[in-house]
Please model this.
Amino acid sequence: MAQPADLTRLTAHDLATAVAAGEVSAVEVAQAHLDRISAVDEAVHAFLHVDTDGALAAARAVDAARAAGERLGPLAGVPLGLKDVLTMQGVPTTCGSRILEGWRPAYDATVTRRLKESGVVILGKTNMDEFAMGSSTEHSAYGPTHNPWDLERIPGGSGGGSAAAVAAFEAPLAIGTDTGGSIRQPAAVTGTVGVKPTYGGVSRYGLVALASSLDQAGPCARTVLDAALLHEVIGGHDPHDSTSIDAPVPPVVEAARRADVRGLRVGVVRELSGAGYQVGVQQRFDEAVALLEELGAEVVEVSCPHFTYALAAYYLILPSECSSNLARFDGIRYGLRAGDDGVRSVEEVMSTTRAAGFGDEAIRRIILGTYALSAGYYDAYYGSAQKVRTLITGDFRAAFEQADVLVSPTAPTTAFRLGEKLADPLAMYLNDVATIPANLAGIPGLSLPVGLAPEDGLPVGLQVMAPVLADDRLYRVGAALETALLDRWGRPLLEEAPSL
Amino acid sequence: MPSITRDEVAHLARLARLDLTDEHLDRLAAELDVILTSVATVAEVATADIPPTSHPLPLTNVFREDVVHPSLAPEQALAAAPAVEDQRFRVPRILDEE
Model:
């Protein structure tokens, strides 16, 4: 049996095909990735927990199913990193927080269950900013993840662990969650692909809530087709989530295979460029747009005038919802309990527990949200932010009359240095300026690598956005661009990354 | 409108059940002031005639039949509890001592 030199370099699609054909066993695939994690994760720190025994058991089950002649799912035997914000029965789930240290959930998230049922091999839980609040993973209570392109730089956030695991060839696939850009911005700064599906397209059951009206789980991968295959596995209606859309998953795999943009109207969002965007980011973005035009797309410029207010609205809506959602961590039913000396009251124990268990950014946003929702300020802050949300949704509606998809740089800059923005919350928040509008409107977005910025040699991401439930368009555009860029480069962008 | 005092932050921390140090409260007051000044710009365009959006989907209540489903056993539900007594969550003192 001919074995490829390095199983960790294969795409998820190729791995699944090789496993299904019996060219390699799922156990060999899992072991190769576990070995890779052992070799590089001390430097990268993409994983908070590696479930070696569970992964190998899942891989053995796939091999047994194949031996028994059962039909395997499209990703059976493919390893994956699961963001530590999704529950997995019996496996530690911390959300990057001390308050959940050592917690082993009693149940699987719907995403986790669907992965298991599809024969996907879950390697472990990936690092993240605490409760998904941040753009760098520096707010993880367990230390930051390092960008495989430059270990001194951030891997993006909050899902920096998932993106870095994929970029460092520790896993071909990962699950992220995106509340304001936490799948797309890490994808952009690590040279990988990340998709936030339409809100309600993937179940939130078992996804520890940050901002319930914005949170959405989605795929992280090295290719657009791999992301589509994963999207199809995790997507679809779930009776356990009342906000899950009761409609079929858009035909994302078919779209990724079609990879054709001829006649498609591509709108460049005027407000998501210019001041604040790094020169090299803008340059690579402009080149990619020109390439789309060469491929037969019709490029138009659109204006979304209220996007200027998106960041402000987001940083009122998110803290408001988060202050309410994080109230469940009270030291009573699970997680940390501090200061329970038999004398202190339940309120005192809760206050001691929460102050000890939450990090600075979580506390900052809880206080901000408590303020925005309090009597006398509600209308001016939370109420106004909700109106801006209406205006932004209206901007998208108008733009989608002129264009089938919208594009922008995913993030205004390439990966910045660890520590660079930690002391300045507002500077950190600005990383999400281009990704937040899609969350506010509930529309889907994809980021894919379009080159390296000339000034620093670091990856640049291009974001594609589509109307609600038109997720397939993201993959059509993403795959077409990916193919054309690969032709131009001669090899995948990640091959340019330094070896670890 | 912003200009949030340290006493206000202390009040918010009490509401949010966060026992913060004086130093932390001071730091938060300064940070929140900057953040609130920035986000207060939403008021510039949020005029009275615009309806608010609380959620991206047109949400309606989702109903299902009231039937018994398999669920967690008590020992599973209690497995992660910080303190358990008589198959229940044990909580710290709830009432003031009189």
